[in-house]
Write a structure and sequence with these properties.
Blueprint: H1 2-23, H2 27-47, H3 51-76, H4 85-88, H5 91-114, H6 127-134, H7 139-160
Helix pairs in contact: 1-2, 2-3, 3-7
């Protein structure tokens, strides 16, 4: 019962802090909301028994990538000033973003309906076994993760760039 309560609590934390990332007017504080989201996701990995993934998630994402994003935002001088909602979400980009979101949601629905999820296999915790599983059975989620990292870099650049006007 306590695992279910932890799951729901950290799921709510992850969703609320993700909304803070999208809607917070100050980029530096939005990035701090993203750090909270990453910690909540690491707790979910821990609840699933994926301790290696949880630690790698904290070290790589919360520790390295987000600190790099914070440096870029601070060096550009965009961290303390508020950016209006209409400036962050340009109408030109809403249509492609909506189409990509619909395609991703459709792909997830097709994936869930098309295959029955098997129970998690017990994995010997060596780096060799994790690497073998990562690059064989879990190659597609690994590639999706690299795509999400690339999109995060683009988002950080878009937040940090100065207006041409």
């Amino acid at each position: 019962m306590s695992q279910a309560l932890l799951f729901y609590f950290f799921a709510a934390v992850a969703v609320l802090s993700a909304l803070g990332v999208v809607f917070h007017p100050r980029p530096a504080r939005a990035l701090l909301c993203l750090v909270v989201t990453m910690f909540a996701l690491a707790v979910h990995f821990t609840l699933l028994g994926a301790y290696f993934v949880a630690m790698a998630h904290l070290i790589v994402y919360a520790g390295a990538v987000l600190v790099l994003f914070l440096f870029v935002i601070m060096l550009q001088g965009a961290g303390a000033r508020e950016i209006a909602l209409h400036q962050r979400f340009n109408i030109i980009y809403l249509l492609p973003a909506g189409l990509v979101s619909i395609l991703l949601a459709g792909g997830l629905i097709a994936l869930i309906r098309g295959s029955a999820f098997q129970a998690l296999k017990s994995v010997d915790g060596t780096a060799e076994n994790i690497g073998t599983l990562l690059f064989s059975q879990y190659l597609l989620p690994f590639e999706w993760t690299s795509l999400l990292i690339l999109l995060g870099v683009f988002a950080a650049i878009a937040l940090a760039k100065k207006d041409a006007a």
